[in-house]
Design brief:
- This protein has about 325 residues and is of the alpha/beta class.
- It folds into 2 domains: about 1-215, Spore Coat Polysaccharide Biosynthesis Protein SpsA, Chain A (Alpha-Beta Complex), CATH 3.90.550; about 240-320, Hexapeptide repeat proteins (UDP N-Acetylglucosamine Acyltransferase, domain 1, 3 Solenoid), CATH 2.160.10.
- Helices cover about 20% and strands about 30% of the residues.
- The strands form 7 sheets. It has a 7-stranded mixed β-sheet with strand order 5-4-1-6-12-8-13, sandwiched between helices. Strands 15-18-21-24-27-28 form a 6-stranded mixed β-sheet. A 4-stranded parallel β-sheet has the order 16-19-22-25, with no helix packed on it.
- Helix 3 packs across helix 6.
- The longest helix has 14 residues, at about 220-235.
């Protein structure tokens, strides 16, 4: 099966972190976010993937390359203007071919049984199958309403509000590429321009409830909170407590708890780092104190300096994190 990973977004809500890297290339547990996605796709039989690009495209290419390291042949589609969840796949319609393909958001970390999703799609005869999970916050995430047969009755209240089982759509779906021919060239949206019309026509998508972790990295605060959850859950075999890169240097009399420390980082004697994410080549000086913060590549925290609930980046003013 082929897959397309949507990674062209501007990452506006993730600023200032996305001033230096595209959102899909941000480090998660010391690896670019897309590494986790590509490994999952390969584990479920995906052998070719298309990644669309717009914002800071070189950072994505540098992080992924040709995909050979993950067992997936990766190609890229650059969008001078962002085409959306429908227009992006529509642009590479010829590459997708005629077989069902997997479409996933490139800005979340998840671990679902994609094979189960593929099989459910093949058995159902549906033209679209949506992965669904329990809605963690109906006030924040739009609901998907399904009937007893699993068919979608409403998505984000489109084409109209409906009653039934309410779930959340995490941006993982299998669809017939021929559906893309219904879209005009240019920007479009799969929910508004494809799925809502299918429901109105009486050919609704299938919804399949899946289990597994899903983490929203939509803002710096969520990025930090997701790291805390990932560390606590030992996501895909990662260490519980802290993840420290083997090429980082932590003084024996420094303390690191519930944190991620990147390659080439240095934490000096007496420093205390708690609940934070440190990217590559960060230096935390003697007796410095870091709590619930994100320190981007190359940041230097002076001896005795304290930083709490903030984002610190080279050349950028300190940004406060909402608690």
């Amino acid at each position: 099966m082929k897959a397309m990973i949507l990674a062209a977004g501007l990452g506006t809500r993730m600023r200032p972190l996305t001033l230096v890297k595209a959102k899909a290339a941000l480090p998660v547990l010391n690896r670019p976010l897309l590494h986790w996605t590509l490994e999952l796709l390969a584990a479920h039989g995906v052998r070719e993937a298309m990644i669309n690009l717009h914002h800071l495209p070189r950072t994505v290419r540098a992080a992924v390359g040709d995909g050979r390291a993950f067992g997936v042949k990766v190609a890229y589609s650059y969008e001078p203007e962002i085409l959306g969840t429908g227009g992006g796949p529509r642009k590479v319609r010829r590459w997708l071919g005629d077989e069902p393909f997997l479409l996933v958001n490139g800005d979340v970390v998840f671990d679902f049984d994609l094979t189960r999703l593929f099989r459910a799609h093949a058995r159902s005869g549906a033209r679209v199958t949506l992965a669904l999970i329990p809605n963690p916050d109906p006030r924040k995430y739009s609901g998907v309403v399904t009937g007893p047969d699993g068919r979608v009755r409403s998505i984000a209240s489109l084409p109209r509000a409906a009653r039934g089982t309410i779930s959340m759509f995490p941006g993982v779906h299998v669809l017939d590429p021929a559906l893309l021919d219904r879209l005009p060239p240019g920007a479009s949206d799969t929910v508004r321009d494809l799925y809502a019309p299918l429901i109105a026509e009486g050919s609704p998508p299938l919804g399949v409830r899946l289990r597994g972790p899903w983490y929203d990295l939509g803002s710096p605060s969520l990025y930090l909170a997701s790291h805390q959850s990932l560390l606590a859950s030992r996501f895909r075999g990662s260490r519980r407590g802290s993840v420290i890169h083997p090429e980082a240097r932590v003084h024996p009399r420094a303390r690191v708890t519930r944190s991620v420390v990147g390659k080439g980082a240095v934490i000096e004697q007496g420093a205390d780092v708690r609940g934070s994410v440190l990217w590559d080549r960060v230096r935390v000086g003697r007796d410095a104190d870091v709590e619930a913060s994100i320190l981007a590549t190359g940041v230097r925290l002076a001896d005795g300096e304290a930083l709490g609930h903030a984002v610190l980046m080279k050349g950028q003013p300190r940004a406060e994190l909402t608690r």
